[in-house]
Amino acid sequence: MTAEYKVDGAIAVITLNNPPVNGLGLATRRGVVEGLRQALADKAVKAIVITGAGKAFSGGADITEFGKEDAYREPHLISVIQQLDLSTKPVIAAIHSVCMGGGLELALGCHYRIAAPGTSVALPEVKLGLLPGAGGTQRLPRVLGVEAALNMIVSGEAVMSEMLAMLPGQKLFNKMSASAETLLAEAKALALEVADARPLPRVRDLSCKHPQGEAYFEFAATMVQGMSKNFPAPLRCLEAVKNATTKKFDDGMMAEREAFMQLMMTPESRSLRHLFMAERAASKIPDVPGDTPVREIRTVGVIGAGTMGGGISMNFLNAGIPVTILETKQEALDRGVATIRKNYEAQVRKGKLSEQKYEQRMSLLSTTLNYGDLKNADLIIEAVFEELGVKEQVFKQLDEVARPGAILASNTSTLDVDKIAAFTKRPQDVVGMHFFSPANVMKLLEVVRGKATAKDVLATVMKVAKKIKKTAVVSGVCDGFIGNRMIEQYSRQAGFLLDEGASPQQVDKAIEKFGFAMGPFRMGDLAGNDIGWAIRKRRHVEQPDMKYSASADRLCELGRFGQKTGAGWYDYVPGNRDAIPSEVVAKMIDEHRKSLGLTPRKISDEEIVQRLVYALVNEGAQILEDGIASKSGDIDMVYLTGYGFPLWRGGPMHYAGEVGLFNVVQAMGRFAQNPNDDAKFWQPAPLLAKLAAEGKQFS
Ligand code: 3HC
Ligand code: NAI
């Protein structure tokens, strides 16, 4: 059992002990019930304290149990909480560190609660596409008031215990302990104090009302609906809290349970739960043990103060790590620093950053034209022009000056990290750190593992990524790494769709309706169509049999590189980023179709979405097959955090599983029949074909 039972004089202590965060799995639930049984049977015991071992009171229901048989085995969490509620001896929850989800619901089923300062308190179920399913929606409003409880339940955000303790009239905590260290002793003292108190206070007996009643909930529903249009859970949370004010406690509980079970079956919740697990799994590299010693990163060097170098530097400054930027010319340094200042100043103006923090961050920044000034840096990230010759110069100089053991990283988006590593005499210390633009905003970091990259270098970079709040995903070396290699296939399909009869705006609208933040053509205009043009020119030489629609080349030949030239797939008015359908482009596409002898046909939005998304899926499957990504969840994380794939669909590989891999493969067979498409590409990757035939999924 994963709950311990001990008696200390007149007090029994039940300690949840299910690392890492005392998730309330079956064995733990059984442990609590068994502890309670023993305490009630022991005449010497007058009161019971429940607490958690290690770094949490409890992180809630055991997420790893979801979907498995144990989750449905008695005692359910609701039954456990009912037992506590009905206990004839007082039960005191001693809360510390983390008290979330089912953990908070368990505490709310106790008669008294004492919390240590610094405890993160939350009902975060909504972030998993659920609602609190063990009484949280009925009990929290009774102790915090409707509005504070609704805010916590609908946002899922954690609030510090000391903040909650200050809410006027709150009944969540009977007491705050002086510190985490004194919590247990203070909980026992409280237990002795209340040992003979009767009747025992129960949260379920408290009344729950909002002075504006229906009107308040109508207003709140409009707000919640506006903020969560693709997610069903937030509104269900609201309905449940409303029930707490209108229904009897037991009826409210029943409705909550029903909503919980229904939400558990929704694709949105499956996606969000997948995202939670995939995000944590991404930081684990199969052959790099979790206890691999890491190198210390106290100072960082950045080579190049351009678009990427500036953004990369800001990440470290934000995390309190000093940065030295190196450039070839003083003007370039001045320009780079001015951009960093401008970005911070915009944050200060919007009230997102205090003047003091701004100054603090800028004081950590220094600049140089001299490689010698990087001799003490622990991590040096290169972000110079995307030319192998320039990278060679830089890495050779770094090899001369960097201290032994310093990590040398390249932000290259297309070049071979192994070749870059070979410019040094220490390829084991070289790694790719592929940030996405704007680098100070985008969450994704592809960590590119060269064939010689040392394990402790990888472990260090993964740790650093966490420190600068990035989602790091490891990719092997290949053209485009995970994300751009896949997007190329997606873009190719977008081009073929134009040839066959779709307009840029139809393609964009269809995929944006599916949930992508931006369609491929609007995205091209934002990033610069010339980037893809350069890649295709290279491809025409390296892989002459790779087929592309020539419409994108024609567009670039017209000088329409996108927003930066005021025209791309769309027209733009100066000072405005709105994409206006372009007659020039329509004419260009029409001429291009004629040159191919193609008669435009009506293409459904469904076909557009399938061809774009399944292109990602097939290339993703090949990436897994090639060992470039070690798990399908990593690919999903790349797309969710770097490419605007809709969160509620869980990433391309997860989504393919939702559709059914069999159906995906069938659709690919149909696309292969299209003479304008690339039949060879639509041969399912062997892994995809195998899983589809076995009725399995990627994860
Ligand atoms: N069950 C099982 N494992 C959990 C867990 C949970 N509820 N919460 C976290 N973990 C695991 C993580 O998977 C991770 O495992 P790993 O080390 O093997 O990767 C480990 O705990 C540490 O997690 P983090 O990396 O996230 O560590 P942090 O210290 O940054 O955060 C946390 C800890 C605040 C607890 C965070 O993990 C979190 O927010 N967890 C989710 C809590 C949650 O959503 N609870 C609600 C569950 S649903 C529920 O209770 C239903 C009920 O209403 C009926
Ligand atoms: P940029 O042109 O904005 O900046 C490059 C900077 O490097 C310039 O300031 C230049 O003066 C400096 N530089 C050139 N040679 C140098 C040298 N030998 N020593 C020191 N400084 C030197 O380019 P950007 O966009 O910042 O790209 C940099 C790298 O990041 C490239 O490898 C690119 O492929 C990669 N990248 C770019 C992304 C983007 O969206 N811009 C996204 C991800 C990666």
TrEMBL record:
<dbReference type="GO" id="GO:0006635">
    <property type="term" value="P:fatty acid beta-oxidation"/>
</dbReference>
<dbReference type="InterPro" id="IPR006108">
    <property type="entry name" value="3HC_DH_C"/>
</dbReference>
<dbReference type="InterPro" id="IPR008927">
    <property type="entry name" value="6-PGluconate_DH-like_C_sf"/>
</dbReference>
<keyword id="KW-0511">Multifunctional enzyme</keyword>
<keyword id="KW-0576">Peroxisome</keyword>
<protein>
    <submittedName>
        <fullName>3-hydroxyacyl-CoA dehydrogenase NAD-binding</fullName>
    </submittedName>
</protein>
<keyword id="KW-0560">Oxidoreductase</keyword>
<keyword id="KW-0276">Fatty acid metabolism</keyword>
<dbReference type="InterPro" id="IPR036291">
    <property type="entry name" value="NAD(P)-bd_dom_sf"/>
</dbReference>
<dbReference type="GO" id="GO:0070403">
    <property type="term" value="F:NAD+ binding"/>
</dbReference>
<keyword id="KW-0413">Isomerase</keyword>
<dbReference type="GO" id="GO:0003857">
    <property type="term" value="F:(3S)-3-hydroxyacyl-CoA dehydrogenase (NAD+) activity"/>
</dbReference>
<dbReference type="GO" id="GO:0016853">
    <property type="term" value="F:isomerase activity"/>
</dbReference>
<keyword id="KW-0456">Lyase</keyword>
<keyword id="KW-0442">Lipid degradation</keyword>
<keyword id="KW-0520">NAD</keyword>
<feature type="domain" description="3-hydroxyacyl-CoA dehydrogenase C-terminal">
    <location>
        <begin position="480"/>
        <end position="572"/>
    </location>
</feature>
<dbReference type="GO" id="GO:0004300">
    <property type="term" value="F:enoyl-CoA hydratase activity"/>
</dbReference>
<dbReference type="InterPro" id="IPR006176">
    <property type="entry name" value="3-OHacyl-CoA_DH_NAD-bd"/>
</dbReference>
<dbReference type="Pfam" id="PF02737">
    <property type="entry name" value="3HCDH_N"/>
</dbReference>
<keyword id="KW-0443">Lipid metabolism</keyword>
<dbReference type="Pfam" id="PF00378">
    <property type="entry name" value="ECH_1"/>
</dbReference>
<dbReference type="InterPro" id="IPR001753">
    <property type="entry name" value="Enoyl-CoA_hydra/iso"/>
</dbReference>
<comment type="pathway">
    <text>Lipid metabolism; fatty acid beta-oxidation.</text>
</comment>
<dbReference type="Pfam" id="PF00725">
    <property type="entry name" value="3HCDH"/>
</dbReference>
<feature type="domain" description="3-hydroxyacyl-CoA dehydrogenase NAD binding">
    <location>
        <begin position="299"/>
        <end position="475"/>
    </location>
</feature>
<dbReference type="InterPro" id="IPR029045">
    <property type="entry name" value="ClpP/crotonase-like_dom_sf"/>
</dbReference>
<feature type="domain" description="3-hydroxyacyl-CoA dehydrogenase C-terminal">
    <location>
        <begin position="608"/>
        <end position="696"/>
    </location>
</feature>
